[in-house]
Structure formats: C-alpha cells, structure tokens
Amino acid sequence: MLLSNNKSITITTDSDLINILQFVKKGSANIANKDTKIHEYFSLYIFLIATYKRSLLNLPITVSKSESPDFMLEIRNNDRIGLEHTTATIEQYKVALSEFKKYPKGSIIEPSMYSPRNKLPKKSSNIGIIKPGEDLIGYGYDGDIIEQDWSITMLNAISRKITKLNKEHFVKYKNNELIIQDHSPGKLLNDIQKSIKILKKRFIQKKINPQYQFDKIHIFSNSNFIYDIFGKIEIIDISRNEIKRMLEVLLIQEI
C-alpha cells in the first residue's frame, strides 16, 4: 500500500513495507522532475525504509498526508511526528539538469561550475554543460571546496524550512522533523563525514535561534540516509543493492 494512492497508510508488520520497497527499487526522484509530490513521497519512503532498517521507529506507524508539514506520523501511545520535506540544490544547476536532455549524446555537466558562493543568472545556467569535443572549462574542486559548498547548500535549505516552521499556519507537533533531499552538484564526490562536520560548524556559527526548531533533521544523499544529523547521527545504507536485499528478505518471509 502506497501513500500516493491513499490519504493515509498504516504499517503494522514487516510485510507492509514490501510495496514501498518495490516502489523505491523501481525508480528514483530525479531533480529535473518538477512534480514536488514525487520527491515528497520518494523521500518519505526512504525515511520509512531507513528507520525500519535500524529500528529507529517501532511499528505500527500510521502516515497521513498533510500540508505544512507534508506528512504526519502517528506512532505508539498516540505520539505524533510532523515530517516536512525539502530539496537542497542550486537553482542554476537544477535548470542545467533540465536543459541537459536537449544536448547531444555524450555531453556532460561540470558540477564545479555551480556553487552557492557564485550565483549565476538563469540565462547562464548552461555554462557547465559541455558538448562532445569541447574542452572542460572548470577547475574542479580544490581542498575541501566541495564539502564547503555542500554544507552551504544544506544550511540554506535548513534555514528556509526553519523560517517556514515558525509561520503561524505551520502545524506544530510534539516532534517536528525535516527530511532534506540532496540534489547538490557535487553530492557524488564529497566526503560525507567531513561534510557533516563542516555543516555542524556552520549551523552553530549561524546562530539560528527562533521560537521553534526541528527536533531532528535528516538528509537523503546518494545511497545514504543520514538520520538526525545534529544529534546521534546514523548513516544508513539505502543503495539500490541494499533495497533489493531487504525486499528479497521480506518476500522470503512471506512464503
């Protein structure tokens, strides 16, 4: 049973996760897809899979569609968790990915041409798209630039959503959590441990201190789900091979 087809779903047993695992195994949420609901549902399913895998949430769980936050989770003892989703990227990079499909086969995108420290006008979003036979124009990533850029991109997304959390229309629950879907340019190249340390430092330096904060912030990045990045961090493997393995185990249990 999938939430995209229902107002709410209840996960009572391990077998209730089979449809979710099958859905995630089949596809992905590409940033070029402008349907925000696809990104929301996909990230929710990754969250459920990751927390199930590490026993971070106990069954049964009822998940309901919502608005501000995007989802409401009801767990044992009627405790409720508000779960908000956002995508962290650079707008010009997002535009470039959308335009990339128009370019000839063999073209590439230079991630280093897109940085949160160097905002490009939208009309220059294709600056990092290199056609076959053309020379590369970027200088790559020196030192910890890629980790610094990643931390800035994540922090911008966090700041934006904390502002929304403190708006009057945003429903606050006993626990309020945020999932960030990482679509930053250098996400395939960065050192995740180093990136987390830099993000923590930047978050402290920024001194974000509104009335309400998210109790937990999670980041879905590549094949990892980083659970509670400012708390007791869990880096959980949610690669395609791992999703396949989990699905096979549950299907065998069903026999």
In short:
The chain is an alpha+beta fold. The protein is 35% helix and 19% strand.
Describe the SSE topology.
Layout: E1 8-11, H1 18-26, H2 36-53, E2 61-65, E3 71-74, E4 80-88, H3 91-100, E5 108-109, E6 129-130, H4 145-165, E7 175-182, H5 192-206, E8 216-221, E9 224-227, E10 234-237, H6 240-254
Parallel strand pairs: 4-7, 7-8
Antiparallel strand pairs: 1-2, 2-3, 3-4, 5-6, 8-9, 9-10
Helix pairs in contact: 1-6, 4-5
Structure in words:
The strands form two sheets. Strands 1-2-3-4-7-8-9-10 form an eight-stranded mixed β-sheet. A two-stranded antiparallel sheet has the order 5-6. It has helices spanning 18-26, 36-53, 91-100, 145-165, 192-206, 240-254; strands at 8-11, 61-65, 71-74, 80-88, 108-109, 129-130, 175-182, 216-221, 224-227, 234-237. It is α+β, with helices and mostly antiparallel strands and 255 residues long. It has six helices and ten strands; from the N terminus they run E-H-H-E-E-E-H-E-E-H-E-H-E-E-E-H. It folds into two domains: 3-90 and 143-254, no CATH class; 91-130, no CATH class. It is globular. The protein starts with 7 loop residues before the first strand and ends with a helix. It is 35% helix and 19% strand. Helix 4 packs across helix 5 (192-206).
Report the span from N to C terminus: 19 Å
The number of helical elements comes to: 6
Number of strands: 10
Q: How would you spell out the order of helices and strands? A: EHHEEEHEEHEHEEEH
Mean pLDDT across every amino acid position: 91
The largest β sheet comes out as:
8 strands, mixed
Q: Which overall shape is indicated by the principal axes computed on the Cα atoms? A: globular
Helix content: 25-40%
Q: Structural class, judged by helices and strands? A: alpha+beta
Strand order of the largest sheet: 1-2-3-4-7-8-9-10
Count of discrete structural domains: 2
- Give the C-alpha Rg: 19 Å
Strand content: 15-25%
Low-confidence stretches: none
